[in-house]
Structure formats: structure tokens, C-alpha cells
């Protein structure tokens, strides 16, 4: 009975503190511009890989730079393009929120990671936008907050920085650009991969 209660409490905390950490954010769609249809649907039909296959333990953390190929990391993230947004979820079969997307990806690589976007504030090493690489994590403030409330993974940084994320209610995992709304809410980019 005690384990069931602990699981229930943990589940409740995950729902309360995921993404922007406020129930209000569930109804906010952070997309100001429409996603590029080619980018948002290109991998929507790609099958989603199993999360943490077998009974392999989560044995790495974000305390040290991770020895994960950044291009493989981004390619795996792209397998979730088209997944519906679902507040508080890290299960792609049900939907994903922004921090749930990263949580699920890190679990695939057996990495213990925060479940809330807010908890990424002091993770990794900050890098400039100019030096951002695919696989770096990009952080934004929430809609009506100065705290971190949204996040994504940098996919490319050529003419404009692009990132994969789960924007908000009524959307799907897509690739956005660091412009407009996102430029105004940009906080920083962090590097957690070697």
C-alpha cells in the first residue's frame, strides 16, 4: 500500500511541475507562427522507438557532459515529430509536453534527468546562440513568468537556430525557429552533451 501511495504522490508531483509548472500553462500554445508543415510532419509516421528497452537501469546523470552522439540524439528526438501535446506526459503513446519529450529521450539513453523545464536552469554549461550545436537544450520563460517554463532541443544552427519541442495544447511535437515569440522568451542554451 505504501508503494502505491508513493507512486501516486510522485505522479501528482510530475503533473504539477512539468513544463511551466503551472496548470494555467496547459492552455497556452507557445506557437506564435505556424510550424513549417514539412518539418512538423516529415517524421510523424516514423515509428517511435522503445523507451529504456529491457530492464536496463538509468545509470548516468546530467552532472557531467554525456558521451552521446549529438546527431543520433537529435535524430531520435525527431522520431517524435507529430506526437500530440499532452500536459504532464512523458509517454509518447499518450502525448508529450516539452519537458516530457526531453525526459523520455534521456530515459532512452539511460540518463537520469529533471522532469520539469524549470529544473534545467542550473544544468549543463551555457553556450551562446552563435555556438549552439544540435543536441544542445534551449530554454524559454513561460507565458506570463520570468521562470523557465518551456524547452526544446536544438536541431540546427545555420541561417536561423531551429529546435524541436512540444509547443502546447492543441499542437504536436514540431520544429520551431528562434524568432518572434521564442526570441522574446529566450533565456539561454545549455550544453549537456560532449
From TrEMBL:
Residues 67-193 form the NlpC/P60 domain. InterPro entries: NLP_P60_dom, Papain-like_cys_pep_sf, Peptidase_C40. The keyword Protease applies. One of its GO terms (molecular function) is cysteine-type peptidase activity. GO terms for biological process: proteolysis. Transmembrane segments: none annotated. Belongs to the peptidase C40 family. Pfam families: NLPC_P60. Residues 42-61 have a biased composition (Polar residues). It comes from Niabella ginsenosidivorans. Keywords: Hydrolase, Protease, Thiol protease. The keyword GTP-binding does not apply. This is NlpC/P60 domain-containing protein.
